Amino acid sequence: MGQLLEKRKLYFAFLFSSFIFFALLILLKIPLSPFDIGYPVYILSIFSVLPAYLFFSRKKISFKNQLILGYIPLIAGFFISIIFNNSIYFLISFPIFLLNYIIIVPRR
């Protein structure tokens, strides 16, 4: 029971720390231009294979590594949003991040 509680603490710490990226985008005043989507969407689509990878390799990878792998789309979307000055890329990568974290929910 104690191990499950520790995993859940880590899980929710990583999950709720994603709101820091929302706050940083607001503080940096990155505009939201939904009709100005270019080729960075294709870069973000590469990260959409991560949920399938996490789903099929749950037993092979440690839980902490799963948390880090699940965080990659969020970080990539954040940096691409800053580079191309459009926060739509972050909003596109956020559902992929959430799907990753739904897949790796710690269970008994």
Structure description:
The chain has 108 residues and is mainly α. Helix content is 69%, strand content 0%. It contains six helices and no strands. The protein has helices spanning 2-16, 19-27, 40-45, 50-56, 63-84, 88-103.
Could you tell me the radius of gyration in angstroms? 15 Å
Mean pLDDT score:
86
Categorize the overall geometry.
globular
Sheet having the most strands: none
Series of H and E elements: HHHHHH
Number of strands: 0
Structural class call reads: mainly alpha
> Assembly type of the shown chains?
single chain
Number of helices: 6
| Weakly predicted, low-confidence segments | none
Distance between the termini: 8 Å
Strand residue content: under 5%
State the helical fraction: 55-70%
